[in-house]
Amino acid sequence: MAHEDEKYWYNLGSGEVEKGYASPAVDRVGPFDTAEEARRAPELLKERARAWAEDDKREDAWGSTTGSAPDDKA
Q1: How many angstroms separate the CA atoms of 41 and 45, rounded?
Q2: Which residues of 28-49 are buried (b: 16+ CB within 10 A; e: fewer)?
Q3: Does 72 or 29 have the greater pLDDT score?
């Protein structure tokens, strides 16, 4: 496995793929093993955000019941 300064990063400001620490950490996401993976960073971030939101929704719903409460009229 390569050192992180030999990996690829996606620069959020410029939209460019960079190798190593070419820009400040706040401007980049990664690391990625290949330049192609880094190019797909925006798509990957959207997919991961969607998955995290679905996980959060499931966790928020955990233990709750669906439907209406039963009537106590007997």
Answers
A1: 6
A2: bebbbeeeebbbebeeeeeeee
A3: 29
